[in-house]
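A quick aside before the break. I want you to see a complete sequence-to-structure record at least once, exactly as it would be stored in a machine-readable document. Don't worry about memorizing anything.
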Amino acid sequence: MDRAFLGTGWRFPLQVSPTGAIATSSAERKIEESVFLILSTAQRERPMLPRYGCGIHDLVFAPDDPGTVAEVSASVREALVAHEPRIDVLALDVGAAPGQRNVLLIRVDYRVRANNARGNLVYPFFITEGM
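That is the input. The structure line, written in tokens, reads:
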């Protein structure tokens, strides 16, 4: 099945292929990398695209409480809806990592609109860095 409509681009994180060229990824893998990139990029980090990214990075020292979890969840959903039009977010779950008070695990379940393929991603967010 031809999946060219899902896109092809540089692999994230940036890598070099065995031939010495910039490694690329395509299809569902490219979409997964795009979701990870959106969550990893802080808003205002890119001067030419200040709204690109996710607002969770403004919450790095926020208290570990249900209010912060709700803010993280809302920021993730807003960022994915705004910046990844190839997917529908089916479920979003934010919870503390077992045994680690400073880490929230963000689980995103999504469906690729073009072919209804399902994917998921777990993104670790360190809510209080260095603790």
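Two observations worth writing down. The CA atoms of residues 52 and 83 lie 7 Å apart. The mean pLDDT is 88. We'll return to this after the break.
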